[in-house]
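tool=predict chain=A
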Amino acid sequence: MRRRGIEVNTRTRLAKSIFFIIVLGLVLTVSSCGGDERRAERLWRQAIERVEKGDTQGAVDILQKIIDTYPDASIAAKAREQIVVYRGLATAVQSYPMRRAREWMVQIARAIEAFKQAHGRAPATLGDLVPGAFANVPLDPWNRAFNYETTARGYRLLCLGADGSPGGDGDAADLLVVDGAFAAASR
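tool=predict ok
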């Protein structure tokens, strides 16, 4: 009498099935670990693309996501290092216009002081500094004219900041030079 294949060695078939399930589980576990690494690396590439496009804040946000979501991934260590650099770069980019406005005001004040030395008085307008000190009347970083007026003792030079109106904070803050020295802008 012949037995069917199903009836023969049922224990062996059961053992093979269990072994297959265990191996499959191990493969899935190992591959999921690599999946996290790949996802973290994909985010890293997105962060680099953001930096290349000039979006440093977007890159910082993605790097922070890598650090928070995949802290054990090898790329997370690189993200921790780079996030410091990109945060500094983002801050520098944000503060650049105000720094540039201060630099322009220092240059204008020096030119006014030189004019005063040569002529015994402050120039009536900033246009009097052209062409001697400047090729054109200087504009602030937001492409607006600096406010300039002479006073009984000297002069006042004012930059109204990013918003172009009196008062404000941050990039919208006013910068004031009175007789060659920065002063607190009155509100």
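The chain has a mean pLDDT of 78. The two ends are 108 Å apart (CA to CA).
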